[in-house]
Amino acid sequence: MSAAVTGVSRTRSRKRAQVTAAVAFLTVALVSAAGFTSRADAGAGNPWAALRRPLHLPKLAAGAKCPVSHVDRRVAWKRINIFGGSGLGRGPVYPGIPSAFLMASRDEQYGGPWFGDKVFWYVVPSYRGPVLLRGRRLDGPQKMGFNGAKLPLPELRIAPDQSVSWSGQPPGSRGVPSGVRVLVPGCYGVQIDGASFSRIVVFRVDTAS
Predict the structure, then answer these.
(1) How large is the average pLDDT for residues 114-126?
(2) Where are the domains positioned within the chain?
């Protein structure tokens, strides 16, 4: 075989190798892009996943003073006919817990070890997005739950279109009632996550047989 023929053969081999490598690279890139798009779409279709941020609730030593949240006096609670003037925290989502204290009673409907009390969560009209609430005991390892049946749910969700009407509410207000459920008395915190904020409210819970 002549040197010219050998050179042509080598050139063709290099070109075939280059084409093969390019096709392989494009295939990997397309597959990766498709996977990324799929994950992005999944996240876009599930706003709760985006709100499920790591919990930053504080931990307290046993017997430490419970740093309860205070009523937000910037909100005219009595004028809007809600909570009797006792919306706790910085907002824009507030629990109606008078004196930052709950007296939870034993679960008579389902039985078991859980105690619970009713809490109404108010969302101011200026915030229109979803809200995710999760909590736990701060001065011990026990969990806190919401609603549920024999077992409470680990989180409470307030959707943008979820609301309860009441007399005197400002236009655009939202709110949902819930059961807050615990196993033992103590100091408890709830992390409230929205699209643009993450807040903590703290209150005391006692249990009554």
Answers:
(1) 94
(2) 3-45, 54-208
pTM of the predicted structure, to 2 decimals? 0.77
Helical (H) or strand (E) element with 189:
strand 186-194
CA angle 181, 117, 191 (to 5 degrees): 55
Q: Nearest 5 degrees, angle CA 70-CA 157-CA 108?
A: 80
Residue 173 near residue 105 (C-beta atoms within 8 A):
no
DSSP-based three-state secondary structure for 67: coil
Domain 54-208, architecture per CATH = Sandwich (2.60)
Buried b (16+ CB within 10 A) or exposed e, 24-48: eeeeeeeeeeeeeeeeeeeeeeebe
For residue 160, give the DSSP letter.
T
What per-residue confidence (pLDDT) applies to 131?
97
CA–CA gap between residue 113 and residue 90 (Å, rounded): 32
Phi, psi at residue 164, to the nearest 5°? -130, 135
